[in-house]
Write the structure tokens for this entry.
Amino acid sequence: MNDMNKAKLDYYIELVEGELKKITASKPELQGEVVKAMEYSLLAGGKRLRPVLVMEFARMCGEKRPEKFARAACSLELIHTYSLIHDDLPCMDNDDFRRGKPSCHKAFGEDIALLAGDALNSLAFEVLSDEAIAGVIPPERAIMLVSVLSKAIGTDGMIGGQVIDLRSEGKDIDLETLNVLQTCKTGALIEAACVMGVILSGRFEAVPFAADYAKALGRAFQIVDDILDVTGSFESLGKPIGSDEQQHKTTYVTLLGLERSQAIAKQLTVEALGHLRYFEDYEFLSQLTQELLTRQS
């Protein structure tokens, strides 16, 4: 990524970090522990990819001040963090580390971690509705955003994907099932981010093109995740490697092998880049898409 686009990415991330800190700033005395747990996981780092996608798609669709949607874009990060907290719980993937730190349930206990995830889930929709009340988002667009986001995390989205994942542990599943699993578990929220950016701009005819880009990106993103679980390190990933194998999960690497997985991820990245040609001034997102393919964390 060139210096100008790197500065742009840093600017987006700084906006998101600032809004996330504001969102969890209030910690009432009696229930403050759960807010501290929310903040612990929310501010632990990460790519902030999903809110970046929201703002960038809004910009590519003609919004001259995409930064005004930073707080609304944070709704995606609230949902993403809630999913990570719940994924790490002993009843799910039972992971002790996340982003180089003890998982939320290790730091605060299972009960508070569970509630922190629940609170982040509801907070995402509170943020969107408050932005509509404040006049940042037109009410009809806010309703569309709520619809897109709620569907992305429901039984046909992230939660549904997690169910398939849990029920597939220790079993051999085929590529079609794996694709459905990951389209729901990982891809749905990435698609929601891109589509929500388009909705915020009001250029609704661009929704299918944003969705097609996101579908290809989401699949490539997950394949790279599976590759890194084999080739990465604790230092770069912030969590133990080889966890998929230990939990007897079918991944793209176990099903297709490392080299074929890498080739498919490259092919999907090319497809994603092709869908960007519908939009004007897509250089930043083009470079970011290519960097996601070669990332080490």
Summary: The chain has 15 helices and two strands. The chain has a mean pLDDT of 95. The longest strand covers residues 97-98.
